[in-house]
Amino acid sequence: MRVRLGVTRRAHARPAAALRLPAAYDLLDVPAAAGRRVLLQLERLGTPLGPVLTVPAGHGVDGSRLRFFVEAGTTASFLGDLKELGWEPADTDVRTIGVVLAADTPLPAAGSPRWVRPPETVPEGRPERGAVLPPARLLLGALAHACRRGEQRGPLFAGSRVG
Questions:
Q1: To 10 degrees, the CA torsion angle through 41, 45, 47, 52?
Q2: Which of 17-26, 117-126, 154-163 ranks highest by mean pLDDT?
Q3: Torsion angle defined by CA atoms of residues 118, 123, 127 and 129, in that order, rounded to the nearest 10 degrees
Q4: Helix, strand, or coil (residue 28)
Q5: What is the CA radius of gyration of the chain?
Q6: Are the beta carbons of 64 and 52 closer than 8 angstroms?
Q7: Helices vs strands, H then E, count in the chain
Q8: How far is residue 52's CA from residue 17's CA, in Å, rounded to a whole number?
Q9: Alpha-carbon torsion 140, 142, 145, 147, what sign?
């Protein structure tokens, strides 16, 4: 079921808040285990993050994956950015999904992709501005490292606990 974010599914109910996403965004798609380790570490460091969606196996993917929402157009230089950071694209399991329009974003339903880190909400009556998303490059190094380390099943940083 595809609905425009910010529109309630119950026509009779007046929404108290709406989900806020920018008009367009890109996605960084990584294996779920690696993505969760990076998400935990980046949140602890106070890194500005956007929404993160989990996509279970069977929804067009082989295994469970996380999708990090990043600024539109910032994955265009993905291959060059990876190489500049010292990574060969074939050595990591980071994928990109370029420019997605918010109007085409599916609202997660039961048994489907779910928000790990939901978009901000906008209280009713407050002016909507587009959510600020990080550029892909801000997350790329940590995600590439975690995807490579994921093959070794080790923690991202010494003393890290993966739960």
A1: 30
A2: 17-26
A3: -10
A4: strand
A5: 16
A6: no
A7: 3, 7
A8: 19
A9: negative
Three-class SS of residue 32? helix
Per-residue tokens: 55: 């996509």
Is 161 exposed, middle or buried (CB count within 10 Å of its CB: 0-12, 13-18, 19+)?
Answer: exposed
Distance, in Å, from the CA atom of 150 to the CA atom of 11, rounded to the nearest integer, reads 44
Token pair in block for residue 94: 């980071």
114 vs 151 pLDDT, higher one = 114
Q: pLDDT band for position 163 (50/70/90)?
A: very low
Q: For tokens 């806020």, what's the residue?
A: 20
- Mean pLDDT, residues 77-92: 90
Take residue 79 and report the two structure tokens written for it.
Answer: 């291959």
| Cα maximum dimension of the chain | 54
Q: Please tell me the pTM assigned to this model.
A: 0.74
Please name which of 24, 22, 44 lies closest in space to residue 120, comparing C-alpha atoms: 22
Instruction: Give residues with Cβ within 8 angstroms of 44, minimum separation 6.
Output: none
